[in-house]
Amino acid sequence: MMDNQNIENNENEMSMQDLMDLYDKPVRIGQIIKGKIIQLDDKEAIVALVGASHDGKLVIEEATVDSEGNLTEVLELGQEIEAKVIRRPQENDSFFILSMVEMHREEAIRDLRAAHENNETVKVKVKDAVKGGVVATYLGQRVFIPASHLELHSVNDLSVYKDQDLDVNVIEIEEKRGTTRVVASRRKKLQEDRIAQEASAWESFEVGQVLEGHVERLTDFGAFVNVNGVDGLLHVSEISYGKVGKPSDVLKVGDELKVKIIALDNEKKRLSLSLKALQENPWTRIEEKYPEGSVVLGKVVRFTDFGAFIELEPGVDGLAHISQLSHQRVESPSEVLTIGETIKVKILDSSEENKKVSLSIKAIES
């Protein structure tokens, strides 16, 4: 029978053997290994590895996907880390080469698969614009976002997304020949955000409100102005008191402007806006601005059988009756006037209530 001393010696010997086995066990490529940083500078760290015959080396490119900074801003001397072994010691380099980026890439793929299965968003950072879309990264894993999935509208300049953080949904993830292909989309998140924003906006809209907006698109009959995430119609007749041939004559896409809500239909989701409603009505105090007997300049804007309309200011056209065009008999206004011509006229009468100004050309002829 063994005495207690022999049993204790055997246990000690087993413990020593286990320890030796630990250090004799070869470190494999791809193995996740622990260690402590024993030397650190801006570009690389030396790591004392647990269970390895050599120390490890971790360069900044393998420590973080953002390799433009300083490694001392990412790691600390004495810090314990885990990293993947990507190269064994060689004759000219006695270190195991380590990578935290590759270790995180495995974690990234697990996260991206989970996000795909659970229909959740992940935040990625755009690194570059390429043909057909942009390349982003998530914990070092490449993620491709097609141009058609970046916005709810078409995108012309993909370079504006460089270095941006985007919330995306994973729409495709595929293993092929040892690599993982990940395709993501931002459209679904934007659509969900828009729906929520529009619902909130419709609850707050009231007729008479004045809101900041920007022109989204132009048509022949008006402009669509986005206010609080909702597109409202600014009809051409509501742009100005003056004559507007088509909206593109006075507005362009992207213009920022204040508009007033003049009508809304919550059920049909129709919003009518006005710029004109925020401008002073040019007929206000018309008798003061154009008193009877005064002589002013005007522009000939259109003809009728009974006379010519002369624009005194945007929104105010006065009528020079055919009998007031000349001392000579006139059969048609075009005999004595030209559209676009600037002429002197005399105010015969003006009325704010009736929105009328009567003019005479012959009254100032010598």
Automatic annotation (TrEMBL):
It comes from the Bacteria. GO terms for biological process: translation. Keywords: Ribonucleoprotein, Ribosomal protein. Residues 30-101, 119-187, 208-276, 293-362 form the S1 motif domain. The keyword Transmembrane helix does not apply. GO terms for molecular function: mRNA binding; structural constituent of ribosome. InterPro entries: NA-bd_OB-fold, Ribos_protein_bS1-like, Ribosomal_protein_S1-like, S1_domain. One of its GO terms (cellular component) is cytosolic small ribosomal subunit. CDD domains: S1_RPS1_repeat_ec2_hs2, S1_RPS1_repeat_ec3. SUPFAM superfamilies: Nucleic acid-binding proteins (SSF50249). Binds mRNA; thus facilitating recognition of the initiation point. It is needed to translate mRNA with a short Shine-Dalgarno (SD) purine-rich sequence. Belongs to the bacterial ribosomal protein bS1 family. This is Ribosomal protein S1. It comes from Proteiniclasticum ruminis.
